Amino acid sequence: MVEEGFQRKLTAIFSADVVGYSRLMSEDEFATVQILKECTEEIVSCIEHHRGRVVDNPGDNLLSEFKSVVDAVKCAMEIQRKLSERNTKVPEGRRMEYRIGINLGDVIDDGERIYGDGVNVAARLESMADPGGICISGAVYDQVKKKLNLEYQFLGKKSVKNIEEPVHVYRVPIASDAAAQRMIKATVDRMAFTLPQKPSIAVLPFTNMSGDSTQEYIGDGITENIITALSHISEMFVIARNSTFIYKARSVRVQQVAEELGVRYVLEGSVQRSSDRLRVTAQLIDALMGHHLWSEKYDRKMGDLFDLQDDITKKIVVSLQVELTSGEQARVFAKYTDNLDAWSYGVKGNYLLDKFNKEDNIKARELLEAAIKIDPGYVSAIVWLGATHTVDGGYGWSESPVDSFKRAHELAQMALTLDDKSANVYILLGTIYLAQRLHDKAIIAGNRSISLAPNLSIAHAHLAATMFFSGRFDEAIALTEKAMRLSPRYPAFYLSPLARSYAFRGRYEDAIATSNQLYDRSRKGDYPEEWALLHLAGLYVASDRQDEARELVAEAIKINPGLSLAFFEQSQPFKNPEHMKREIEALKEAGLK
Predict the structure, then answer these.
(1) What is the dihedral of CA 60, 66, 70, 73, to 10 degrees?
(2) 133 and 182 in contact (C-beta within 8 Å)?
(3) Other residues' Cβ atoms within 10 Å of the Cβ of residue 553
(4) Fold match between 7-175 and 491-593?
């Protein structure tokens, strides 16, 4: 029962808040208040234009309501576009950016203000939005998804303080509509790396717009396949997937991506699956010039997925005026499977393989075996399956490392028979040869992988490890540096041969700093922590820090009681016995038995 003077109703609740308001006030109170007043006037005008009502406006917060959720979302889009345009004329540190949250909920209205859980949810949605962004609840999404031609990104079910049931949260990407925000030009001076002379590109993860997290693998797989295809082109510079996938589910400007990764061009897109159909958008952006080279929308059957990927790749190559040799063309557009079920298992298995831990490695193997059962000619899945065995054998996760590498070699030969032009096959072979102490063969395989895919970061990293164990430390350092440039957000294992090569070259400060980075990454689950501790312990002994070294070894043994000098010697394939002796002696002094 609602008391007299109060009304219960269903309404669209719109909550907005300024990002970093306290900082802005602390820096310049007068200017901040003036800008806030101007922004508030513009926002209120837009709300009224879209038939909304401002309910409350304390300081940098603003609460309003709309009878129509469509009007509320349209209003939010227009506000963010206008504020984005306004901010292009303001120094970055003085920009006033708003977050906006929109919910559809039951509220109590006393004639002046509104109350209830619906208001609280809107406020929480606003806090989840990116600066300059919009988040909506599942209730809002259900009402607007077929009425507004927008793209929605499902962020999952989120727990909301003081609300019993989790809330379905969607992001409304406004970047593609806010041209002023998107097309701020990148500048060479702000780039973290020297811009390559050849066309350079980063392919961002395609956003899943399906509202179903189980369909996430489709966008990831498209992104992976396009990057892999481009990596075969010698006349291009292509950023590795490890570095572009850090932007997944983040609202970032193309300018930021280009400057952080040191590239001129950025490809971004989205994918939405409905039954057996796919809607895919893709756009190629010249970040330095600040404009689109092209933008395409595809509406295809799911079975046309592989042709669609080829279409996008071809458009990139043509737009960047890259001429392919006949060999490159064959590799770029090679299809390893036409079976969607096999492809699905393969993509998911490769994702788990990258997690680099024993449990996910087992799950990855099961998925990859399922993929190969469906399509025995799926070369990528065969290679990835082989990699699960080399990882098992290399880190002591299997009962018999010898059997693990034997099985990996069988799979590598199977893949080689199917495709002797696959760079990944030669990476796998190089890893196996190295474990077998066949260093010259490992180097030949590593060089072959790089010649087939000059932009494949992991090919350079694996050859770097081979060069380290072969005693060619300067080459190991140079190869690792190239791998890191191709993948600025590189996998943690790149740091291991780099740190140890520094040590053998007498660069102990660099070695310890790099090994500490590896240890930090291992504590986040990016690398086996016990191995990071052993590497660092050996360096501490060489730097006359024996007590600290013993503490590290003791910690490593707590994590893995099976560690021993014998196991270390067995797993480290040094070509020169003196190099092995040097590391063994250091670990012995650090307390490893």
Answers:
(1) 0
(2) no
(3) 26
(4) no
| pLDDT of 41 strictly over 60 | yes
Q: How many CA atoms lie within 13 A of 588 on its CB side?
A: 9
- How many beta carbons lie within 10 A of that of residue 533, not counting itself? 27
CA within 13 Å, CB half, 43:
30
Cβ partners under 8 Å of residue 307, min gap 6: 300
Enclosing H/E stretch for 220: helix 216-231
Boundaries of every domain in the chain: 7-175, 183-332, 491-593
The string over 279-305, giving b where at least 16 C-beta atoms fall within 10 Å of a residue's C-beta and e elsewhere, is bbbbbbbbbbeeeebeeeebeeeeeeb
From the candidate CATH numbers 3.30.70.1230, 3.40.50.2000, 1.10.10.10, 2.40.240.20, the one assigned to the domain spanning 7-175: 3.30.70.1230
Fold of 491-593: 1.25.40
- Please report, for residues 61, 76, 410, the alpha-carbon distance to residue 131 in angstroms, rounded to integers and kept in the order given: 14, 13, 52
Distance CA(579)–CA(570), nearest Å, equals 14
> Token pair of 75, please?
């209003």
Task: From the options 3.30.2350.10, 3.30.70.260, 3.40.50.10070, 3.100.10.10, give the CATH code of 183-332.
Answer: 3.40.50.10070
Using the Cα atoms of residue 464, residue 465, residue 470 and residue 474 in order, give the sign of their dihedral: positive
3-class DSSP state for residue 187?
coil
Amino acid at 89: K
Per-residue HEC secondary structure of 429-479 comes to HHHHHHHCCCHHHHHHHHHHHHHHCCCCHHHHHHHHHHHHHCCCHHHHHHH
Q: pTM to 2 decimals?
A: 0.71
Pairing verdict, β 237-238 and 265-274:
unpaired
Residue type for 243, please? S
Q: Helix/strand/coil (H, E, C) string of 241-272?
A: HHHHHHHCCCCCCHHHHHHHHCCCEEEEEEEE
User: What is the rounded distance in angstroms from the CA atom of residue 178 to the CA atom of residue 569?
Assistant: 58
Helix (H) or strand (E) holding 61: strand 61-66
- For residue 437, pLDDT beyond 90: yes
CA dist 189 and 444 (Å) reads: 39
Higher pLDDT, 256 or 500: 500
Residue 323: C-alpha distances to residues 283, 316, 381 (Å): 21, 11, 29
Nearest by Cα to 333 from 350, 317, 351, 349: 317
**C-alpha to C-alpha distance for 464 and 479, rounded to whole angstroms:** 5
Q: Are 345 and 320 in contact (CB under 8 A)?
A: no
Q: Give the tens place of pLDDT for each residue, 393-432.
A: 988 888 898 999 999 999 999 999 999 999 999 999 999 9
Nearest of 463, 499, 496 to residue 479 by alpha carbon: 463
Determine contact, residues 169/158, Cβ cutoff 8 Å: yes
Q: 64 forms bridges with which residues in the sheet?
A: 14, 54
Helices (H), 335-420: 340-353, 358-374, 379-394, 401-418
Query: Is the model more confident about 232 or about 87?
Result: 232
How many CB atoms are closer than 10 A to CB 62?
Answer: 24
Encode pLDDT of 134-189 as tens digits.
Answer: 999 999 998 998 888 777 777 777 877 777 788 888 888 765 443 434 456 788 88
